[in-house]
Amino acid sequence: MTERSVNLGVDFDLMDALRASNEKEENEPVTSLDVARNRKEFYKENKNGTKSLIHQNFAVHMINKHHIITLDDQLHIYQEGVYNSNEQIIKQLMIRELPELKQVQIREVLEYIRLTAPEMEHASPFFIACKNGIYDFNKKELLPFNPSIVTTSKINAIYDENAQCETIDKAFITIADEDFQIVQLFLEITAYMIYKQNFLDKAFLLVGHGGNGKSTLMNMWSSFIGEENVSAISLTGLSERFNVAELHHKLLNAGDDIPLQTIKDASNFKKLATGERIMAERKGQDPFTFRNYSKLIFSANDVPRWFENNNGIFDRIVIVPLNANLRNSPNRDPFLEQKITTEEARSYLFKLAIDNLDKLMKKRKFTIPDVSKQRMEEFKVDNNPILTFIAESVIHQKTTQEVYDEYRDWCESEGFRFPLTKRQFTTELKNNGFEVYVTTDAQSRKRVRKFKGKEG
């Protein structure tokens, strides 16, 4: 007897659509028999002969069958070894289970799921999901996928303890311009990416003009981590209302080619770099909070200026100068990017990441290359317009108002759009060795306040 000769109360047009859905989805297929059983179990017959959906029972069925949980104030569903926060998937699965559901019924069931789904915590960051299972970093073994291990992303690599790829080694060395301190930092950044906690409180800024390998490096890391695990919010974009949510459940934020402009608001940057709890919001949805574990890596032709000028910034960013000239090199490989994004290359990057994460855990700090230290000192001076103004100006024995007026004009000519107030400016000069004294002006005979430098 064929399937079409048996009528189990299932609309055959709906079943055709259901088959098409089953072919596309990775979830357990739903058959016409399943639908018939669901209708019998989750509908009750009313006195007038109509049938009503038992929302609570159907919601419990969805939660149990599809491993739906609440995580970071949002519903998540288990798919392909990890948990996904896309509620649209839950709605699609409801329709697969009961194809005739109306929108109002879907909303009611979804609301009940929100109220009753078990609230879970993220698994330890030592559980690292990859394409062929979950790597237990502590036990150094690969485990099968398991819904009890709550993780929301898996890297785009197969774990292979014997993986090798000489092209990756050469690429790191070439992009680092044979600076092996930078090579070691590249390895540590790769390791840091796979660990879902920002335990070293650092973000990275790759600096250098075009053709030096910044984009190649970023594309390699993005391929290794998996494009679905990468956001691309710029440094300036982190302060915009809906952008923070884009980093939720991501492993890497690759902010490519940020513009050379003043960073006015660094509050979100600091929270994201350190993994503090932060409020996020998506358009049309309720706000939620989460702890960021995506690693912040930005690239730029030069280091941008920051309105905030203190250790809150300096302690959280590592500047990585890249001076190689790959574009004009006689040894340039036009196919390098394809070679370092293969399955073999990604497996080797995973092996390197695991090996170097072990070392990073033990020393609890990054390798900071000498060129990075030097560039950071330059950045501290460049980012503090007061120091530059002092170096370029005559201040000693001038009135405080005269010097402040000169400072305002200097800020305008140099492109600093946010000059300090007079009180802040005077305080900064005092912090840099100047004193303020009161004297009588020789011409006006009025009392005036003047600066006195160290030499005075």
Automatic annotation (TrEMBL):
Q: Where are the transmembrane segments?
A: none
Instruction: Identify one Pfam family in the record.
Output: DUF5906
Q: Which domain of life is it from?
A: Bacteria
Please tell me whether the keyword Hydrolase is annotated for this protein. yes
Which GO terms fall under molecular function for this chain's record? ATP binding; helicase activity; hydrolase activity
Q: Where is the signal peptide?
A: none
SF3 helicase domain: which residues?
181-335
**Which keywords does this Swiss-Prot/TrEMBL entry list?**
ATP-binding, Helicase, Hydrolase, Nucleotide-binding
Identify the PANTHER family for this entry: ATP BINDING PROTEIN-RELATED, SF3 HELICASE DOMAIN-CONTAINING PROTEIN
Entries under NCBIfam families matching the protein: primase_Cterm (TIGR01613)
Name of the protein this chain belongs to? SF3 helicase domain-containing protein
Source organism per UniProt: Macrococcoides canis
